[in-house]
Amino acid sequence: MRTDILHIGAGELTYEIRNIVNVGEKLQKMGTKVYWENIGDPVAKGEEIPLWMKEVVADLVMDNSTYGYCPTRGILATREFLAEATNKRGGAQIGPDDIIFFNGLGDAISKVFGFLRRTARVVVPSPSYTTHSSAEAAHAGDRPVTYRLDPGNNWYPDLDDLEKRIKYNPAVAGILIINPDNPTGAVYPEDILRGMVALAKKYDLFIICDEVYHNIIYNGQTTLPLSDVIGEVPGMAMRGISKEMPWPGSRCGWIEVYNADRDPMFAKYVNSILNAKMVEVCSTTLPQKAIPALLSHPQYPIYLQERIDRYEKYSNIAYDALKDIDGVMVNRTNGAFYMSVAFEPGRLTHQQTLPIENKEVRTHVEQLVSGPGVETDKRFVYYLLGSTGVCVVPLSSFATDLMGFRITILERNEDRFREIFRIIGEGIKQYLAS
Question: pTM for this one?
Answer without folding.
Answer: 0.92
